[in-house]
Amino acid sequence: MNTLTNPAGSPGTVPSEHVQPVAAQGGNDVVLAFDIGGTDMKSGIILGDLAQGDVQVRDVQRHPTPLEAGRTGESVCGRIVELTAVYRAAHPELVISAVGVTVPGIVDEEAGVGVFSANLGWKNFPFTATLTEALGLPVGFGHDVGMAGEAEFRLGAAVGKKDVLIMVIGTGIAGAVLCDGSRVAGGGYAGEIGHAMVPAPDGSLAIMESLGSAGAIARRYTEATGTAVSGARDVLALAAEGDAAAKTVWKDAIDALAFSIAQCVSILGTETVVLGGGLSMAGAVLFEPLAARVDELLTFHRRPEYLHAALGENAGLIGSALKARTMKDTA
Amino acid sequence: MNTLTNPAGSPGTVPSEHVQPVAAQGGNDVVLAFDIGGTDMKSGIILGDLAQGDVQVRDVQRHPTPLEAGRTGESVCGRIVELTAVYRAAHPELVISAVGVTVPGIVDEEAGVGVFSANLGWKNFPFTATLTEALGLPVGFGHDVGMAGEAEFRLGAAVGKKDVLIMVIGTGIAGAVLCDGSRVAGGGYAGEIGHAMVPAPDGSLAIMESLGSAGAIARRYTEATGTAVSGARDVLALAAEGDAAAKTVWKDAIDALAFSIAQCVSILGTETVVLGGGLSMAGAVLFEPLAARVDELLTFHRRPEYLHAALGENAGLIGSALKARTMKDTA
């Protein structure tokens, strides 16, 4: 990381990108990225020659999201401005030349607007315009899982793939869909695979994440047995030991996840499924029964490959930085 | 259609496209289009200034598809060559300057290959290469429902829409999906919504077209009652008269169709649903309960509008002609 210690670095003084690939991106130019969640907002400095697939994340911080009835959009932007000043003071050797911001909910990325978030309470809040004016910097704004997907498509597990479903399986489930090499926006409404209906074990219909998410696995086990668990991992461990209720809850989760994957394969010709989020860490215990169940739901269709998300929990930050870099380069 | 009687017409002699829009496309230049089905192959002359949304279909013919074990691809191409000569002889005033061909099954449109068709029995047959060589003309080759969708997107019901699901509901069900303004190819595997799983009335899973297609509606009514019907229209009429079995079969069909539409809305942000094929002629009896049922399956999602396919049963022919015209213009 020696290029970062070169305070004189600037695009004009770099003799060759082959000699100093990081400097070629703009010397000590970095993107400061924010991932706004319902409880915390995560931030971090993204550096490296992103166009070359070289990415590093530094000084990751978490702060409480400043929820404020009716004006959370405004207070989040205010906090981003404050934190940008804090990061600048802490890293005088770096030039924060762009900002990335991801938010959950319905997002109009083209317009730079947070259309709706149930947890955060905004409606049509103009993040890009507000932050561009307040910071005087290019802003890469997008949906949190969409941006994580973008990062996986461009730098991570899905590089070179054309028809991809990325699912981030945590407390809930959100997705990003790549068709023919482009991420589907759907006017900000695409990717809500966790809220698509699936057949429930009792014969009714349920939203997919109410059966397939890590949160649902823990909750459903406790509901079935009265036994508290700390999370889906406990349920998986119990299932491995032969606990009948844990096995049932786990099978239901696999069925729900597989059903939604098979929908994408049938409708979109999905060739690659990238799984991220806490539950994906289960590895083969998840991937193997999932692939087998998807297979049962298909006939003449493609059979997708299954990959683990490569960029980890900072994928959203990285995706927004990629977008911010694009904004900056085309500004 | 007076421009067609101008045998001297050619692009060079047309003074203004505003005066003679059809001639502006190339005088008496036309596309001969073929829609290859499992039983019949339909053909017709497509003329008009396609780029201006002006399209006419003339001399539509149906001939038996020359099924030939192991070489149906070859025999279909042979028949296309013969019929092109027949059309030329019958229409000496027209110049057939390109050919459009649509086929069912898995189709690699980019490579011009019929990858697989269960009904027609080919595997990786190179339609575009075979016909281009045999005819010496540009060939617009594609999936039948995909090309019908393309036509609806460019000239029909879905003009100006960005996120569209087209379903053609006949004996079976096939779809075409438009995301962010582009038709999804999925390597030839996209659009198989009729073969996506849906919850069946008995609590199991079934492929969607086994409940929602016109063919399934007639078959399931006969299975339930022992009463033969001539088609789904009979079942609809019986349901309107209060026949309990007909009402159940119809409700099951609506549930299946709505389930698949809601999947698209959740995953892709679909804003417009275009329905074509025989069953779509049922009109409000289909559209109203369908929209109501989709609504029940959604929460914060988009609510799609429902449109009747505008180009009728010749949409596939028109779509392949549009593609052929593009091939010709870029040749």
User: What name is given to the CATH topology of the largest domain in chain A?
Assistant: Nucleotidyltransferase, domain 5
Q: Strands of the biggest beta sheet of chain A: in what spatial order? A: 3-2-1-4-8
The number of distinct β-strands of chain A equals: 15
State the secondary-structure class of chain A. Answer: alpha/beta
Order of helices and strands of chain A: HEEEHEEEEHEHEEEEEHHHHEHEH
Helix content of chain A: 25-40%
The Cα radius of gyration of chain A reads 21 Å
Oligomer: homodimer
The parts of chain A where pLDDT drops under 50 for at least 5 residues are: 1-25
Helix count from the secondary structure assignment of chain A: 10
Largest interface: A-B, 44 and 44 residues
- For this structure, what is the CATH class of the largest domain in chain A? Alpha Beta
Structurally, the number of domains of chain A stands at 2
Q: What portion of the residues of chain A fall into strands of 2 or more residues?
A: 15-25%
Distance between the termini of chain A: 27 Å
Average pLDDT of chain A: 89
Query: What would you call the shape of chain A?
Result: globular
Please identify, by name, the CATH architecture of the largest domain in chain A: 2-Layer Sandwich
Task: Give the full name of the CATH homologous superfamily of the largest domain in chain A.
Answer: ATPase, nucleotide binding domain
Main beta sheet strand tally, sense and closure of chain A? 5 strands, mixed
